[in-house]
Amino acid sequence: MPPKSIAVIIVAAGRGERASVGGEPDPKQYRPVAGAPVLSRTVAAFLDVPEIARIVPVIHPDHSERYAGLGLSDKRLMAPVIGGDSRQASVLEGLKALAPHKPDLVLIQDAARPFASPALISDVLTVLQTHDGALPALPLTDTIKRSLDGALVATTEDRHQLFAAQTPQGFRFGQIFSAHMRAATVRRQFTDDAEIAEWAGLRVGMVMGSTDNIKITHPEDFARAERIVLGDSRMETRIGTGYDVHQFEAGDAVWLGGVRIPHTAKLKGHSDADVALHALTDAILGAIGEGDIGIHFPPSDMQWRGTASVVFLKHAGLLVANAGGRIVNLDVTIVCEAPRIAEHVPAMRAVIAEALGIVTSRIAIKATTSEKLGFIGREEGMVAMASASIELPRND
């Protein structure tokens, strides 16, 4: 039986920029996976293990409000600790916070690994009965090449001796705390806590890792994470369409796809009259059976006057997440004679991707003219059409 005093450090102090989908980086640990933020899922995985006595999150100094917004509450969950300028320094801050409580064992977990199962955690704790440290690892299946310059192969490694390390990594608290304190005095950055333990002469055992115990690093990892949560077999694809039209009035710019484009007029509307985002919002709402934009944001309600339409789009994305769904792809067509749209498409895709937490490769934006026909040809207004493909859990 493992000792009763087991603590967990969840390292969530990174900026998560590699998982950004455009625009201002949204830290990956706070982005949703099937309706729940990554960090919330990671914390919940350890709260599901009754033997764990304390959990201390280590967060970035700029993320205090984001963490508070998760609404996490459990008597075993300690107040978050501010991390350092590296993962190694952040773990040390977590160890310092736990030191007064003198736990017997400590598990150190990356916040971006939300799928550590109770069985995997138990395996790590079991190995700690006979070793100073333990970590889950997976054997490598690809042939591994070593290169000195990234261009020419120098040698082929023996993959049978190579393993991919995962977390949680477990240790006897006093030993890893001492090792981390010593490591902080040397001019070297260690890649993980097991490396620090090895450097300190501790015996670290391995258990079989899990292919589902992924580390969310890049934007495409979120799609895989959602498949792990929801299971492909439980999903069905829904299609929604949207259409919107706005006339021009006196002004100097139009808002399209969340981007301000200088023009000789502006679009008339209750909000910012972003015809592209209105059509796209309606397409998403249609795919999940949630009516249209006017139901959620009535033009008769003055609180929405002048509102940026990205607010409406984010709301539709949240409804998708709350329904346990995921956006597969979005397609928008803008019809106008002017202004020119093509050069602004990358910025539009980035705004939409950021608002919905998806990669830009899932978004298409096209523009065409009406060949000088009709009200569009007379440059009296413009039209946008959109479609949305969304996967939702089956409810039949």
Automatic annotation (TrEMBL):
This is Bifunctional enzyme IspD/IspF. It comes from the Bacteria. Bifunctional enzyme that catalyzes the formation of 4-diphosphocytidyl-2-C-methyl-D-erythritol from CTP and 2-C-methyl-D-erythritol 4-phosphate (MEP) (IspD), and catalyzes the conversion of 4-diphosphocytidyl-2-C-methyl-D-erythritol 2-phosphate (CDP-ME2P) to 2-C-methyl-D-erythritol 2,4-cyclodiphosphate (ME-CPP) with a corresponding release of cytidine 5-monophosphate (CMP) (IspF). Residues 238-396 are annotated as: 2-C-methyl-D-erythritol 2,4-cyclodiphosphate synthase. Residues 238-390 form the 2-C-methyl-D-erythritol 2,4-cyclodiphosphate synthase domain. It catalyses: 2-C-methyl-D-erythritol 4-phosphate + CTP + H(+) = 4-CDP-2-C-methyl-D-erythritol + diphosphate; 4-CDP-2-C-methyl-D-erythritol 2-phosphate = 2-C-methyl-D-erythritol 2,4-cyclic diphosphate + CMP. GO terms for biological process: isopentenyl diphosphate biosynthetic process, methylerythritol 4-phosphate pathway; terpenoid biosynthetic process. It holds the Pfam family IspD. GO terms for molecular function: 2-C-methyl-D-erythritol 2,4-cyclodiphosphate synthase activity; 2-C-methyl-D-erythritol 4-phosphate cytidylyltransferase activity; metal ion binding. PROSITE patterns: ISPF (PS01350).
